[in-house]
Design a protein that fits this description.
By secondary structure, this protein is of the alpha/beta class. Helix content is about 40%, strand content about 15%.
C-alpha cells in the first residue's frame, strides 16, 4: 500500500533504548550531544525578533517563486559582508537546506540516478535522497592529521548515473573545510564528467582560525554548475524560523536554465512563509550577537576538551577547523556502542558514536561544543577520570 521511498525501520538501537530507560528511572544525564541553540542557553533578542516577525506587510500574499526581492537582497548583503559579491537574481529561497536538497535532487536526477556524498558526514542525505528515488553513493574523507577528500576513491565512485557531488563545507562532524587545491580538483572532475557541485555551507561562519587555503563558500564558482546552500538555522542560530537559501552559479546558459527550472519547482510548493521573508534582513542583522555567543561557547568547550585529553591521555581530540562538533578517538578496547553505553551507565554522560556519522573505522566518539559550558565541563570531567 505504501511507497517504497519510505524505507522506515521501527527498530530502536541499544543506545536510544538505554537512554530511555535511564531517563524513565530519573537518572540525571549530562547530554554532550546538544546541538540545538534554542535549547543550549543562547540568549536571543526576543523582543526584536518578535517585532520583525510582526511586520504588517506579511498580511499581504504576493508569491514569488524564488522569494521576495527584499529577502533575496538581504541574503546577498549577508554574502557581501563576507566579501562575496552575489547577485540576488542567483539566490533562491527555501524553507530549509533540507528542502533545498529536495529541490536539487528533483532538478538534477531521475529516479535511480546517484549523488556522491562524503563519509563521514551528517546522517541525513540518504533519507532525503530516498524520498526523491535517488541513490546515495559515498566517497571517503581521510584523516592524517587533517581531513581531506580521497580523490582516487571519489573518481572510482563515479558511474554513468552520477549527477552531482555533495560537499559539506565545513563538514559535520569533522569540522574540516574544503581547501583550495581540493576545490580546483573538484572543478576539474565535475567539468570533465558534466557533474554539478552541491556545497552545504551552513557552518561556514564558524571557523576556529584563519587559513589562507580554506574555501569558505563556492558561491563564486562559475566553471561548473554549483549550488551553495545555507540558512538561518546555523547562520543566526534560529532553526525554528524556517528560512534557507541556495546560490546558483556556473556557466551562464546552464545557470540561467537551472534557475528557471528551480523557480518552476519552487512555484509548485511556495513553501517559504511571507513573515520570515520580510524579517530576513533584520534577522540576519542580529546574527553577529548570536554568533558571538556561540563562538565563545565553542572555543571554551573545545579548550576544556583538549585540556582533559592532552598528550598524556589515551583519548585523542582530532583537529577542529570549524562548526560546533568535536571528535575524540578512543582506544579500540571496546566498540563505539559499548563506549557510549559505558559512559552512560558509569558516568551518566551521553555522547554519540562515530557510526551515527558513517565513520568507516572505529573507535570515534562525537560531542557537541554547543553544550552549556557547565554541563560540558562536568561531563568531560567525569569521562576523563
Amino acid at each position: 500500500m505504501f511507497s517504497s521511498r519510505l524505507n522506515v525501520s521501527s527498530e530502536i538501537n541499544r543506545i536510544t533504548l538505554r537512554l530511555r530507560e535511564l531517563r524513565a528511572a530519573g537518572s540525571p544525564i549530562l547530554d554532550l550531544t546538544e546541538s540545538n541553540p534554542t535549547r543550549a542557553g543562547v540568549e536571543y533578542p526576543t523582543d526584536e525578533i518578535a517585532r520583525l516577525l510582526s511586520d504588517p506587510r506579511s498580511l499581504t500574499y504576493e508569491p514569488e517563486p524564488a522569494g521576495l526581492p527584499a529577502a533575496r537582497e538581504a541574503v546577498a548583503s549577508y554574502y557581501g559582508d563576507r566579501g562575496e559579491a552575489v547577485d540576488p537574481e542567483r539566490i533562491l529561497l527555501t524553507a530549509s537546506t533540507s528542502e533545498g536538497y529536495a529541490y536539487l535532487f528533483k532538478l538534477l536526477a531521475n529516479p535511480g540516478d546517484e549523488v556522491l556524498v562524503p563519509r563521514p558526514s551528517y546522517p541525513l542525505f540518504e533519507f532525503l535522497a530516498e524520498l526523491e528515488s535517488v541513490r546515495v553513493m559515498q566517497y571517503p574523507l581521510v584523516c592524517d592529521g587533517a581531513w581531506e577528500i580521497d580523490f582516487d576513491a571519489l573518481r572510482h565512485a563515479i558511474t554513468p548515473r552520477t549527477r552531482a557531488i555533495i560537499v559539506v563545507n565545513p563538514n559535520n562532524p569533522t569540522g574540516s573545510f574544503l581547501k583550495q587545491e581540493e576545490h580546483e580538483e573538484l572543478i576539474r572532475i565535475c567539468r570533465d564528467r558534466r557533474l554539478a557541485i552541491v556545497s552545504d555551507e551552513v557552518f561556514s561562519d564558524y571557523a576556529r582560525h584563519d587559513d589562507p587555503r580554506r574555501v569558505r563558500t563556492l558561491s563564486s564558482t562559475s566553471e561548473v554548475l554549483t549550488f551553495s546552500l545555507s540558512g538561518l538555522s546555523k547562520v543566526a542560530g534560529l532553526p525554528q524560523i524556517k528560512l534557507g537559501w541556495m546560490v546558483v552559479n556556473g556557466p551562464d546558459a546552464l545557470r540561467r536554465e537551472a534557475i528557471g527550472r528551480l523557480e518552476f519547482i519552487a512555484d509548485t510548493y511556495l513553501s517559504v512563509s511571507t513573515p520570515v521573508q520580510w524579517a530576513a534582513a533584520g534577522l540576519l542583522a542580529l546574527r553577529k550577537g548570536i554568533q558571538s555567543q556561540i563562538e565563545t561557547r565553542v572555543r571554551r568547550n573545545l579548550a576544556v576538551l583538549c585540556q582533559a585529553f592532552g598528550s598524556q591521555s589515551s583519548n585523542r581530540v582530532l583537529n577542529v577547523e570549524g562548526g560546533w562538533y568535536a571528535i575524540v578517538q578512543v582506544p579500540q578496547i571496546r566498540s563505539e556502542e559499548e563506549w557510549v553505553l559505558t559512559l552512560l551507565d558509569n558516568h551518566g554522560v551521553l555522547v554519540q558514536p562515530g557510526f551515527f556519522f558513517d565513520f568507516e573505522n572505529e573507535a570515534f566518539l562525537v560531542v557537541s561544543l554547543l553544550t552549556r559550558e557547565e554541563v560540558f565541563r562536568d561531563g568531560i570531567g567525569r569521562w576523563a577520570t
